[in-house]
Amino acid sequence: MSEAEPNPVDTGGPVKGRPARRAGTARATLRSMLRSKPATAGLVLVAVHVLIALLAPLLTPYSPTANAPGSALLGPSAGHWAGTDALGRDVLARVLHGGRYALTVSFAATACAVALGTLVGCAAALKGGRLDGLVMRVLDAVLAVPPILALLVVVTVLGAGPAVIVLAVTVVYAPQVVRVVRAAAMGVAPLDYVTAARARGERTFPILVREVLPNIADVVSVEFAMRASWVVLLISSLSFLGFGANPPTPDWGLMIAENRTAMTVVPWASLAPIVALATLVLGLNLSADGLAKAWGVDRVKEAQ
Amino acid sequence: MLTFLTRRLLSAAGTVLLAALLVFAAVQLLPGDVATQVLGQDATPEAVAALRDQLDLNRPAALRFVEWAAGAVRGDFGTSLVSGEPVAGSLWLHLRNTLLIAAATVAVAVTSSIVLGVVAGLYRDRWPDTLISSLTLAGMSVPEFVVATLLVLALSITVPVLPAVVLDEASAPVGDLLPAVVLPTVALSVVMTAYIVRMTRTSVIDVMASEFVTTARLKGLGAWRVVVRHALPSALLPTLNVIAMNVAWLVGGVVVVENVFNYPGIGKLMLEAVHSRDLPVLQAVAVVGAVVYVLCNLAADLAAMALNPRLRTGERSAR
Question: By CB count within 10 A, which of A67, B105, B225, B306 is most buried?
Answer without folding.
Answer: B105
